[in-house]
Write a structure and sequence with these properties.
This protein has 9 helices and 21 strands. The chain has 380 residues and is of the alpha+beta class. The two termini are 34 Å apart. The structure holds adenosine-5'-diphosphate. Adenosine-5'-diphosphate (ADP) binds next to α2. One of its GO terms (biological process) is quaternary ammonium group transport. Pfam families: ABC_tran, TOBE_2.
Length: 380
């Protein structure tokens, strides 16, 4: 599994497939991206995740050679593809990579075969090589029987499979994906997610995947880079990003909407056990996850990790009386807002047992589930 340090930077690993260093991209006078630096180990599925407009596609397009950066270095394999210092910008078609877009960009007037053959034809492969390449690529996406079908007679999911087959047909070293599943309906998107992951594994190809969809990123990636406003907020394995968000932005993006701020009680904290005293005087126990303590700090606690009880639970730490302020039925889950000494906390829990507004209950949270953030966010 990829560690944060490996994902972060500097291409020290022997098998680095892609290295991006101090990359900056502007649109006119506006800085859209950067500086960002990351490296992608060979064979990995690497994901750029973040909200719309954070610079994911622009970064991907610069790696593809479709956007000219303002500075930095992009290296694929052993070769610099872009380097501002060397005044070098290798054209997209010479970078040995293939890209799959959100709009499938397949040609409706051509057959499936001709669509998939395109990349092989422009590389002037022989007829035998083209036929073998198309056959192999269609088999990969389970579309063997469709070679002679006009592309216009395919469903959305089939068109996206053809786009994938076309991207894989000439065995690129690197595959780039720009939100390739976002035009598909939810069910198909879920299936294709798994297929894509298996395809990437079986080909062993290095890939960079762009998405704003957290679940998609968690399900598919070896390493995730979370971007915000053109910069990297955090990089790490899906497990690490989900369980140990480093900043308030990442905590919010991965669904930890409870941020609890307070004064660090150095007298009660030791090692990774950290204790904050809130403005309301509650002592909240949390986990520093190796992060440094300042005087003030913020803990992030995921909504699904807060528990409600009608009787006071056993134990002393992180148990408080609260009042139910609001209860919203969401199907599988209920979202419950509680009043915690004048502040609001949100809990998501099984919708089976309802709680009435105004009811006095007890809230508890395992200290391990309260993760220290590096930035001191505005919070409870
Ligand atoms: P994302 O892929 O994360 O949604 P983008 O990389 O598309 O974000 O965009 C990053 C920023 O650059 C945004 O502020 C966007 O408005 C701006 N941008 C993207 N493309 C262009 C363009 N062709 N001209 C001007 N600004 C652009």
């Amino acid at each position: 599994m990829q560690t944060q340090a490996q994902a972060q930077n500097n291409g020290a690993a022997a098998e680095t497939a892609i290295e991006v260093r101090d990359l900056r991209i502007n649109y006119g006078a506006v800085a859209a991206v950067g500086p960002v630096s990351f490296s992608v180990p060979k064979g990995q599925q690497f994901t750029l995740l973040g909200p719309s407009g954070c610079g994911k596609s622009t970064t991907l397009r610069a790696i593809a050679g479709l956007e000219k950066p303002a500075g930095g270095v992009i290296k694929i394999g052993n070769r610099n593809m872009y380097s501002s210092a060397e005044n070098l910008n290798v054209p997209a078609e010479d970078r040995g990579l293939s890209m799959v877009f959100q709009s499938y960009a397949i040609w409706p007037h051509m057959t499936v075969f001709d669509n998939v053959a395109y990349g092989l034809k422009v590389r002037r492969k022989s007829r035998e090589e083209i036929e073998a390449g198309v056959k192999r690529a269609l088999a990969l996406v389970q579309m063997e029987g469709f070679a002679s079908r006009p592309a216009s007679q395919l469903s959305g999911g089939q068109q996206q499979r053809v786009a994938l087959a076309r991207a894989c047909a000439f065995s690129p070293e690197v595959l780039l994906f720009d939100e390739p599943l976002s035009n598909l309906d939810a069910k198909l998107r879920g299936d294709m997610r798994i297929e894509l992951r298996e395809l990437q594994h079986s080909l062993g190809v290095t890939s960079i995947y762009v998405t704003h969809d957290l679940e998609e990123a968690l399900a598919m990636s070896d390493c995730i880079v979370v971007m915000n406003k053109g910069r990297i907020e955090q990089s790490g394995s899906p497990y690490e990003i989900y369980n140990y968000p480093r900043t308030a932005f990442v905590a919010d993006f991965v669904g930890s909407s409870n941020l609890i701020s307070g004064k660090v009680r150095a007298d009660l904290s030791s090692g990774d056990d950290v204790v904050l005293e809130t403005a309301g005087g509650e002592l909240v126990h949390g986990n520093a996850h190796g992060r440094k303590l300042g005087q003030q700090a913020t803990l992030s606690a995921r909504t699904v990790h807060l528990q409600l009880h009608t009787q006071r639970p056993e134990g002393e730490r992180n148990v408080w009386p609260v009042t139910i302020a609001r209860s919203v039925f969401l199907g599988d889950l209920s979202e419950i807002h509680v009043n915690w000494g004048g502040r609001k906390l949100i809990i998501r829990r099984s919708a089976l047992d309802q709680m009435a507004e105004g009811q006095q209950v007890f809230l508890s949270v395992d200290p391990k589930r309260c993760v220290l953030l590096e930035d001191d966010a505005k919070a409870n």
